[in-house]
Amino acid sequence: MTVIDTSPLGVMGPSAPTVVRLSGEIDIFTSEALRRQLLGTLHYSTSLLILDLSEVSFCDAAGLAVMIGVQRRARVLGIRVALAAPRPFLSRLLHISGLDRCLPMVA
């Protein structure tokens, strides 16, 4: 699992979203590191954090739990979390789990 923060601190204005591109597998083996990185990102995020899932090749329940946990923490900080460009398998997983209703999608 690789996290690439595509909008580092100071580069974009406060109204521009913070975009984090995820790649590789998000599973029980990588989820804790991802959780720490995303929670750290919240400290300098704008009012919208977008998780770009276009390069995620696998995601299990641990990965979904990370997304929900980060969303809950972000909400407390006044930050919205949205997902972008999930591959078809991940879109289906989000739909089956009902998380597509909790985590909005952006173009």
UniProtKB/TrEMBL annotation:
* InterPro entries documented for this protein: Anti-sigma_ant, STAS_dom, STAS_dom_sf
Q: Which Pfam families would you find in this protein's record?
A: STAS
Q: Its family?
A: Belongs to the anti-sigma-factor antagonist family.
User: What name appears for this protein in its UniProt entry?
Assistant: Anti-sigma factor antagonist
Ranges for domain STAS come to 19-107
| GO MF annotation: an example | anti-sigma factor antagonist activity
Q: Where are the transmembrane segments?
A: none
